[in-house]
Fold:
Amino acid sequence: MLSHLKTVGNTLLLGLVVLPWNAVGQNTPQWRGVDRDGSIAGFDTPSTWPVSLTRQWNVQVGYGYSTPLLIGDRLYVFSRQGDDEVMQALDAATGETVWRTSYDATFEMMAATRRHGPGPKSTPAYADGRLFTLGITGVVTAFEAATGQQLWQRPAGPVEPLYHTGQSPLVDGDQVILHVGGQDAGALTAFDVSTGEARWSWNGDGPAYGSPIIVNLEDMRQVITFTQENFVGVSAETGQLLWRRPYTTSSTTTSQTPHLYQGDVIESGRGNGITRFRVVREGNAWTTENIWHTDEVSLHMTNAVVVDGVMFGLSHLNSGQYFGLDLDTGDVLWTSGPRQAENAAILNAGQTIFSLEDDAELVVVSHSREGFEPVTRYEVAESATWAQPTLVGNRVFVRDVESLTLWTVE
Structure:
């Protein structure tokens, strides 16, 4: 299959390989996929997994942990190069740069974050030909996806979040929603996608590091997100606070993305176990009521996926332990052995679960109610992997600390 080896710019191209592009329509437009739940529709799971994946190309893209977006035949990557934050478009087949744009993002890194680097950690969002980013200091920027032209930019607020930023933008129609600024100096804000002007804001609490979701509950479209000390739902139309639940963790703040299951909300964060609760509306009054709670497993920086009513995740307990949790009953169905990984980026495609651990091992797991059933494992990078992989067709795009690699399942 490999016919020759050549270098173009800083991109290593391995051979003349014809890639299946039958899944071009299966895009990855935002954090955790189309529905922000880690479910991937466009991956072709093989009947037999190969002994190893085939590396097609590798390119240096700069520091950061944001997920590469795949829209048609282009990849969009948000990163740091020197003192600049960089947005770039790559040809998905070759890794070659289509366009690159940047802006100055000089900042002083907090000592506690040095181990994870200077970011950015926020995944961009794509909608209607525009890209939206949140920089490590809170700068919000919109780009034209076709050319990289900067359409508008909102500067960072006067106070950065304690550990800088980690939240990923959420586009809802003609607004993009983010919680910007630090505690006592920021707000959950809906920006106009065309102008960057604020449509509404709620400043009842500072930001956390998890990303919001938007759902319809009790005949109200609402944004659900963690904040510095609460878990809240606000009106997507006006920003009015509908309900709040006090929520703090042993790690100061949470970095989870909420999950909706059969109309109920799944709440999780370090040291707080996992809770399923229901949002209840009586007239103009909103409350929440717990359905069940468990302390047997808990999530920290890892987000889980749900397959056939079972949540598959990596608990921070026992130094990293996979688990299966029945979301109907709250019963823990199984746990793996301890010390699996410190962190894992987890996705699922049908009955196949992918867990990219922070030590660059991609674990392929069969969905099961009975136990942890890994199918195979692949080494996919030479440095830490904290970003979610991007999966489509037979392609696996893996981002490590500084580079992006295309692997294929042959």
Notes: The two ends are 10 Å apart (CA to CA).
